Amino acid sequence: MTDASSKESKSADRWRRLGDRSEALLLGAVTFWRHVRELWRRMVNALHEEENRRPSVWQSSAPPRRHTERRDAPAPIRVSAQDGVFNFTVDASFTWSSDRLRREALSGYAHYYMPDVIGRLTHLAAEHAGRFAPHRAAGLEAKLQQVLLKEVPWHYPQGDRVVECVPQVRVRPDERVMRIAMPYWEQLIRIGSEFDVRKRRAEYAEQLSRKVVTVLENLGSSLATGGGQRTNEKLASDVEHLLAEHKATLRRLEDLFRETLRDSDIFGRATSGDIPKQGPDGKPPEAPQPADDSKSTDDSSARPRSA
């Protein structure tokens, strides 16, 4: 029994010593990690202080640079016109900019917010497109630019940074409307060109009248002072010279006008009085076919000559 009790006491002493050593090791490890944590905290604070000092130096030496990026809409925006049958096509582009973002980050935000700005622009265009006739694309474009001028730039905050977007638009009519209106636009261009020619003629006629009046006034003053030796033939010669000069100018103007129309060849052989009229179905008639030169030549050769 004595041997058994001695063995139990030795085993208890051994476990007691092992527990004391474990406790001492644990206390040492805790103390070590406390020192490590304190050193880490001091190092992090020192790095933060250094980082806080650097931006002030950078900002004072170089201001932040503003980056800009321009992107086109991936597809045209189509909205219904006034009647709901024809559409307007809106070609849009967007200019993205920011003062405190790198170029790569700005490009990422532009890609991310592109669906949102396209949706806003589509809603805005659809709101105003219903008030314009299908051929009034220029009016819709002016209206959209006027509205956007009051709203832009569109802002997208990102914390202490802001991404700005400025849209630009260009409106085109429906292709079907362009085909229908093309003959009328061509005639408007022709009428405008002829109006310019007639206006120039009137200006030259006014200049000629002033010159004739000046000649007559000079002749009258010469006769009144008694020193006028000019005869009626001389007066007629001066007037004829002015008329010849005026006619030559008009001929040059007409030749230039005909040459311009012939080189452009956008109106065919139609005359100035060929204003397109609507047919029974409300559509403009087809353009007349050009005359066959060979047929006209044969007809002229077969026609008897007058004595």
TrEMBL record:
Residues 51-74, 267-307 are annotated as: Disordered. Residues 292-307 have a biased composition (Basic and acidic residues). Keywords: Coiled coil. This is Uncharacterized protein. It comes from Micromonospora rhizosphaerae. The lineage of its organism: Bacteria, Bacillati, Actinomycetota, Actinomycetes, Micromonosporales. Residues 236-263 form a coiled coil.
